[in-house]
C-alpha cells in the first residue's frame, strides 16, 4: 500500500542539500565541455553511481535497469509521471493499478516512493522544480515499479519480448491509458508498438506564429479557395493537375493572398527565371522536370515580355504549385516510404514548406530555397555526379553483348568462348590490357606428331582467361560487393550483364532514399550501410573511422531505422531472444539439458534461476516456453567483449562476436538482425575518448565483469540501406548486391 508520510525538518534540509550537491557537478561538467547539456546526463549519472553508498538507489536497488534506461532514452530523458498540466495524475492512476498484494518476487518500492513523493510535493513542486536533477529518483522508481509489474505479468505470455515493454509503457502514458497497457498484459494480450514512419506530407514548424488571415486580392482568394473546396474534384489549372492545393492555401494565407510571381499582371522575371531554370535542372537531382509543369512553365517563360498575359491568377498558382511540389520532392522524396513495401523507420525534418517559402520571399533568399531543402550529406552530391557520368555513358552508346552462363564458372587458365565477351564488357569500365603471353605457343615437334590434325594455337589467344583478365575481374568484384577471387561464377556474370539503364535506375532509387533522411544528420554520428556491410563514424561530414560489420541474414533482416546511441556494455551478458531460444536452443535442450552449462548459459523463470535438469523438456514447446535464457560474460559469449546500445523496439544493437573469421568474407549477412562489429574495442576507444583511455578500457575488459559506461553525449546512429556508394574522393563507385531485395521492391513503384 502507499502511505503518505510527513517530512521532518532534518529530512527537508537533507533534501535541499542533496539537490544543491547534485546540481553543482553537472553545471561544472557542462561548463567544462562547452556544449549544451545532455538531457540524459543527470539520469545516467544516477545509474552509473547506483552502487555507491551515496546513491539514492543503494538501499532499494532498481530491478529492471535495462528496461528503465530504454524507457527514458525513448523520452529523451524527460519525467514520465509528472506534468505541469495535471501534476501527478498519472502517478495516482499507477498507484491504483499496481497490485496491493506482496506476492511479486520483486519489490515495487512502495515505501521509498511514498517518501520521495512527499519530498517532491513539499520541496520541489512549490518552487517549480521537477526534473532529474532534483526529483529524478521518484520518477525512476515509479517507472521501475510499472515495468517490474509488467515483466511479472509477461511471465505467462509465450513470445513476449521484454525489450518492447518500455516502448509500450511510454505509448500508454502519452495516450494517458496505463490501465489499457496493464489490462492487456493481465489478459495475456501482447500488443507491441509498431514503428511509425516519420514521413510527413505536410510538415509544420513548431514555432510558426498563428496566421492572421487577411485578403489583399479577393480574386486570388476565391481561386485558392476553390482548390480545396469539397465540390472541386478535378483540381486543375490551365489543363494541368494541381498537386499541392493544401500547401498552396497555407502559403497564400501567410502572405495575405498577395501574388508573388505575377504581381498586378507584371511578371517578376528574376523569380520566374530562377524557378523555371531550377525545374529544368531537376534531372540532375534524379527527378523529372515534367512532374513540375515544366512544359507549361517553359512556354510561359518564352512568352513573358510580349503581349499581356491572360489567366494571370491561374498562372500564379501553377508557378506556386510547381515550387512547392519540387521543394517537397527535394526535401522528402517523391515516394512515401510507408507505402513502398518495406519498413523505413527514420525520423524526418519537421519543415513547413509554405512557411519556408514565405520566409525566403520576404528575406529575398529565394535563390537558395531549393538548395537548403536538399540532403546535405556529401554522398548525395557524389551520387548526382555518378548519375551524370552514367547518363553520359548511355548517350555515348555504352552497351555490351550479354555473356552466357555457359557450363560453369570461368577460372584463370581456362579457355572459353565467353572470355572475349567478358573482355569487351569490362573494357567499357576499366583499363583492359591486351591478352598476355598465355604460354599457348605452337607445340614442339615431338608433341605435334601425336595429334597432327590439331592446328597450332596463336601466341596470344584472347579466349584464354589469363592472369591480367583475372585481376580486372577481381577489381569488378570488389566494386560490386562480391568475393574478389577472380572466378567469374554465375553471380559475377549476372552482374556483368546488367545494363547501363540498370545502373542509372539503381543510382536514382538511392538518391530517392537519401531524400527520406533528415537533411543534416549531425556533427557526429554513426552510419551502418547494410548492403555494404560497413559502419562509418562521421565528424563534420567526413568519415573518421570505418569498420566491417555482419548484418542480418535475408530471413532475419536488420531493420532500417535511426536512434541515439546511449551507452556501452563491457563484458556483456546475452539475453537470448525468444525466437532463438525456441527455434534453436529448445530442440537441443530436449536432447541434452546440459547444453546450457556447456555454453555458459543460465535458465530463468521470471527472476528466479531454474535448473534445466529439473524441467520436463518433453512437455515444453514454443507455445508454453515461459523461460528466459541468459549467457554469462566470457570468451564464448555471443556478444563478445562489448556491445553498443541505442534502445529501440527492435532490440538491435552493435556488438562484438567470437566468430571473427566471418569478417574476411565480402558478403556478411549472417546475423539474426543485430550488427556484429569487427574490432569493436577500437570503436569503444574512439567514442569514449578522452574520458576513457585505451589502458582504462583494457583494464575494464580484463576484469571480466559486466560494466556499463554511458557516452558523454548520445550520438545518432543510422542503420540504412544503400546499394550504391561513391568513395569520399569521388574516384570509385560501388554497386552492392540487393541482399534484402529492397531495390527490386522500390523499382516497382518508383
Ordered list of secondary-structure elements with their pairings:
Blueprint: H1 9-33, H2 41-48, H3 65-74, H4 89-97, H5 110-124, H6 136-153, H7 165-174, H8 178-186, H9 218-227, E1 236-237, E2 240-241, H10 245-254, H11 269-280, H12 294-303, H13 312-332, H14 353-362, H15 369-373, H16 378-395, H17 419-427, H18 445-448, H19 467-478, H20 490-496, H21 500-514, E3 524-529, E4 534-539, E5 542-552, E6 561-570, E7 574-575, H22 578-591, H23 595-598, E8 601-605, E9 608-610, E10 628-631, E11 642-645, E12 654-655, E13 669-671, E14 675-677, H24 680-688, H25 694-703, E15 707-720, E16 724-726, E17 733-735, H26 742-747
Parallel strand pairs: 3-15, 5-13, 12-14
Antiparallel strand pairs: 1-2, 3-4, 4-5, 5-14, 6-11, 6-15, 7-10, 8-9, 8-10, 11-12, 16-17
Helix pairs in contact: 3-6, 3-7, 5-6, 7-8, 9-10, 10-14, 11-12, 16-21
